Sequence to fold (122 residues):
Amino acid sequence: MARQIRPAQRYSERLLKLIPSEIIAAWVAVQGIIPRDSGPWVITAAAVLLMVLTPIYLKRFQGVSRPMQLVASTGSFLVWVYTLGGPFVYWGIYFSWLASVLLILWTVTVPLFLDGEDRQAA
Fold:
C-alpha cells in the first residue's frame, strides 16, 4: 500500500497512512529486547535512531514525498513511543493518563489537517 496521502482521500485512509506501522513494530521489538537494567541511554538511543529513520524509511520505501506527511508520521511514531512508555519511563516523565489522552487527540485530529494538498505560502 502506497503511503502517500492524495487529495480527496477519506479520513480513515489518511489516518492509516500516517501511522508508520513497520517502525512502530520495530520499536515494540527493540523495547522488548533491551534489558530493563541497561539504563535510560540505551533505550533512548534506540528511540532516537528509529525516529530519525522514520522519514527516511517512508520516503525511500513507501514513496512519501510531502514534508508535512513525513513530519506527521514521525510525530505519530513519537506519540506511540510515549504511549508505550519507552525511555520516558526511565526519565520519570511518563504518565499513563497523559499517554492515553495524547494518543486519542493525535489520532483524531492530525488526519483532519493533512489532505494531500501541497500548500504554498501566500
Summary: The chain has a mean pLDDT of 91. The longest helix spans residues 40-62.
